[in-house]
């Protein structure tokens, strides 16, 4: 991950160090935004906003927290806010329809059919469940780290994660069944 | 361990949160529970697929994309001087190569630039202070003209006392132009250690102005707002008598002035009128007046020469003509540090190194006369009229504030004016002996 020395240099006013730091984290930030928002343009906007926030708030980072956790907390907060703004009241049906529209475009971005299924399934998860899944699998964070990112109790994180996985499994299982039968 | 608990263990296992003992228990259950075994397989499969989700990357460099915004943030933070302008002028899609060097420049300027800005601000403040200070002197400067007429006799009569006194004033005046108004106090330090000096200044009420000095009528004309009144007074006065004389005075070579200094004012007076005469008390204010930039247009050449001259009597007088010229232009614009006596008959104007006591005539058309120029022993602190004739002031001498009292003594003789200035001493009032 990111060197502590680089962070300290950035915090002490070394702008080049800070820029280097941003370059090291930009892919992580984008990846989280992309999977939470399920939209490239939204992900770009959110990731840039997150990087700018890191740039301006670097001095508020304290070493008692992990830097990657601090960064992911920033980006997930931005994504959740963005998601609430853009999709305030989306019923499941509407959500699915939106999702269908996006499928063709994004199918090419994703590597395989299975991954596409999972991706679709992830997008159907409630926001917090999806966010937990993203942090767990795309950022490889532990329960504690996810709890720190989302400012949630540890048990809540576990609960979200277990339920999210169960929901995914159910969706994929039905999909697989459908695929086999159909 | 029931199936529900095992499922939770499965999740924790997938999240690497399960201890080895718990893992063993879970496997034991799975071994005997086909349902849980199937669930476990599905979960493992799902988790594996999630871990293999493609690591999407942004199509562009996000850092490069936000660089302009970062630069803008830097500018807003660091350089308050011209942030908005730079931002607006900067195209949104600046290339990073351009930005970096500029940013470094900004960084440098935050350190060195702020110092420069601070220095500039200090210079501006200094400049304002200097100009606002000098103007005070100038506002009253016009008075000397008229005075000069009346004082002509004094000058000649002043004799040795007068000569001795003026050189000091001239020196001080020379300092003033350099803006060392505050520093000039040092000059005074050597002069006076006495705590209280009482100067008795005979009022130089000459015969010409005598009628105008009637106390009753004066209050109306008190120079509460010196600049305005002066301008009003000057308007008519200067236009008539001074116009003709002003140009001539400005052109006067020093030699002419020095000639006057030699106590033969009468010879030049006829043509030049009031201006040539001021050499006496009027000199200090004039010199101070020559400082302001506005004066440059008119009499820079002569004025500079006069100032450069050694503080001899000749030098003093040579500078006077400038004062006369300057007055007309400067009077209206410059405020003055002036204290009017309660009855309005006298007013005191602070100069760089001394203060000038004026006798205010009742007739507004008649200019105030200079009664006396009292040298300051140190840096001016404050002053106020105690009564109609007594002016108490404080100067700072070597970090100590010394209070002095100046008392205006009416006298018909102008000679006393010069005498009183030097006669200041601690203790009671000294009334100069009259001839």
UniProtKB/TrEMBL annotation, chain A:
Key words, A-Z: Sigma factor, Transcription, Transcription regulation
Instruction: Please state every residue range assigned to the domain named RNA polymerase sigma-70 region.
Output: 24-87
**Cross-referenced InterPro entries:** RNA_pol_sigma-70-like, RNA_pol_sigma-70_dom, RNA_pol_sigma70_r2, RNA_pol_sigma70_r4_t2, RNA_pol_sigma_r2, RNA_pol_sigma_r3/r4-like, WH-like_DNA-bd_sf
Keyword Transcription included in the entry's annotation: yes
One BP annotation, GO = DNA-templated transcription initiation
What are the recorded GO MF terms, alphabetically? DNA binding; sigma factor activity
Please state which protein family the record places this protein in: Belongs to the sigma-70 factor family. ECF subfamily.
Q: What is this protein called?
A: RNA polymerase subunit sigma
- Natural source organism: Paenibacillus campinasensis
Automatic annotation (TrEMBL), chain B:
Task: Please indicate if the UniProt record lists Transmembrane helix as a keyword.
Answer: yes
- Which stretches are transmembrane? 107-133
Q: List all Polar residues biased stretches.
A: 239-276
Q: Which residue intervals are annotated with compositional bias (Basic and acidic residues) in the record?
A: 217-232
Q: What keyword terms does UniProt attach to this protein?
A: Membrane, Transmembrane, Transmembrane helix
What positions does the domain Putative zinc-finger occupy?
3-37
Pfam families of this UniProt entry?
zf-HC2 (PF13490)
Q: Where is the composition biased (Low complexity)?
A: 277-288, 411-420
Q: Does the keyword Thylakoid apply?
A: no
To which protein family does this belong?
Answer: Belongs to the zinc-associated anti-sigma factor (ZAS) superfamily. Anti-sigma-W factor family.
Designated name of the protein: Anti-sigma-W factor RsiW
